[in-house]
Amino acid sequence: MMEQDTFRQRIWQIVAAIPYGKVTTYGEIARLAGSPRASRQVGGALRHLPEGSKLPWHRVINRMGKISLTGESFNRQRQALMAEGIEVSADGKVDLNYYRWEL
DNA sequence: AAACTGACTGTTA
DNA sequence: GTAACAGCCAGTT
What we know:
This protein has 103 residues and is mainly alpha-helical. The chain has five helices and two strands; from the N terminus they run H-E-H-H-E-H-H.
């Protein structure tokens, strides 16, 4: 069957391409997906991942270099980042100048 | 079709 | 550097 090319599916494809040990921002993904102002939709796409998805969703943070999630979700993302050797401060800050994914 | 939602961002102070 | 606000737009109701 032909899958329809939804915005979300394109987001997932792009996120899948973020290399191990690197991060990028919601806005950058929106730009790569061809809708530069749709950064909020990127978050929305990551919130509804397919069951059992292996997508590296944790490599996506906001433009201030911080984790946007709160509560337990924040902790899970922080642990996942640190598990790939990324330095994350206690408040969820990552050095984008050093860890940013660039083509 | 209209209203509402929000894992965001740019501007302003 | 942070905080408040407005604009943004795909998906959902």
